[in-house]
Amino acid sequence: MSDLSPQTRRLLELAREGDPMPRRRRARLETKFFARLAGGVVVGIAADAAWGKAVPFFGALTKGIAGVALVSSLGAGGYFAVHALRHDLAIMHTSDRTHGTNAPSTHAMPAAQPVAPEPAPRPTMAPIAQPMAPEPKVVAALRASSDDRREVSTRRTVATPAVARASRAASHGPVATAPAVAAQNPAPEPAVAPTPPEQAAPARPPSTLSEETHLLAEADQALRSGDTGRAVALLDEHATRYPDGTLGPERGAERIVALCKMGRTDPDTVNTYLAAHPNSSFSDRIQHACARILSRSKRAAR
Amino acid sequence: MSSGVHAIAATEEACIPPVGHSRSIHDFREFYRAHVEFVWRGARRLGVDESSVDDVVQHVFLVIHRRLGDFRLDDLAGRGSAKAWIFAILVRVVREYRRTTRRKSPHAVLPHTDPETIEDLRQPGPHEWLAKVEAARVVQQLLEELDDEKREVFVLAELEQLTAAEIAEVTGVNASTVSSRLRAARRDFERAAERHRRRDTWRLG
């Protein structure tokens, strides 16, 4: 069946494993990717107009870089570094355990999930993805059931910035998605989400990386400008809205810094966090912010 | 969905986040981690040059991220193979990449060794590793002698070890075309390998 010589076969066999992705490069790429992912969306919100309808293929990514810069300037860039450094800890869960408010609740909204396809990133992600003309069969088959949703999303991508924003505002996180998707989709799955009524309000922003990033960036800004109370409030809001969010670990770190600055935490919490995230790029910041609290515990130990 | 894709699904089950409870965007990072290496390697093998490979990988995941909005990871795990699905996206992103960077930039021609690849050599048995890394380097070089269409099927068949049916599914090319392309690709690759061996022998001899 093959025209390959045994020598060539052997060469290919060896080559299959001869190209591992270098660890550090992997880490760097992950940091960059998630920053870009969030950054691109930030650009979409801050400068919708800059995203023309026909963004050239790699042009879109270049603009994404601008987005990263924007996020970084808001102080959010650091959120992503953490993950790169600890990507061996495959699951991000530990930070939430260190303080009560952030109890993970994976099962909080099972009924809303099936019809909650993360609508928000589309307005900005879509222009990038649109040049992907021929849709793979595999994908087509997988998506056969979501055709009408796709239409909705396509329409959204060509909408004006204002409309895009409006549609984003009218959509909602996993919690609140059910009603609006039901409205778009004539044959909705039974969406009896066991969620508190106020969370089901359609005005809730969507639980997406972009919204999460926004919230955390705002909190970070508040924290850096000395408005610790507001920072904590925003972080708590993040915890309530996205108990299981992608940026949970970042929220945890940020929260510790805030609480330390307010003197409202204890050394154990801080040490537990630091022990759980030994490589976190937040470590320095936490240690700096919590120096007084930590030294107090050392004195007490003596 | 063809049986081919299901066949890959069986071998790839392990890469897919466990099914059973609600999963959404917060699983994306896990999904990313489970597949980034294979996307990265695939991109290189498909002929994306070193300086653009990160961009291509990111682009693939941006597309995945967007598409994941249309169905859940559960669907992916239950109904098909993540690997085949990702490959289908990767192949298209790479094609698009080739269209936009039609003729290679002068930098792209220079073989480039990522210094970080070298530090990874400290893993088990330096000889074994060197042999593998060297083989990968040579194969990469030989792949460059294939034209894009042939390289695509060759990489999927010989390096990623997909069957012809799976390749047809992933590339959107019909199965008989895949077979004939693969035959031609093997012939070309073999010739290139033979030339390479002769060069080496000459140099050593």
Explain this structure.
In chain A, about 60% of the residues lie in helices and about 0% in strands. The relative contact order of chain A is 0.12. Chain A has about 300 residues and is mainly α. The radius of gyration of chain A is 22 Å and the shape is elongated. Chain A has one domain. Chain A starts with 5 loop residues before the first helix and ends with a helix. With about 200 residues, chain B is mostly helical. Chain B has a domain of about 110 residues: Rna Polymerase Sigma Factor, Chain: A, CATH 1.10.1740.10. In chain B, α2 packs across α3 and α10 packs across α11.
Rg over CA atoms of chain A: 22 Å
Helix/strand class of chain A: mainly alpha
In round numbers, the mean pLDDT of chain B is 74
Q: Give me the count of strands of chain A.
A: 0
What's the CATH class of the domain at 1-108 in chain B, please? Answer: Mainly Alpha
Order of helices and strands of chain A: HHHHHHHHHHHHHHHH
Uncertain runs of chain A: 41-207
Query: What is the architecture of the domain at 1-108 in chain B at the second tier of CATH?
Result: Orthogonal Bundle
Q: What structural class do helix, strand and pairing data of chain B support? A: mainly alpha
Q: Give the CATH topology of the domain at 1-108 in chain B.
A: Rna Polymerase Sigma Factor, Chain: A
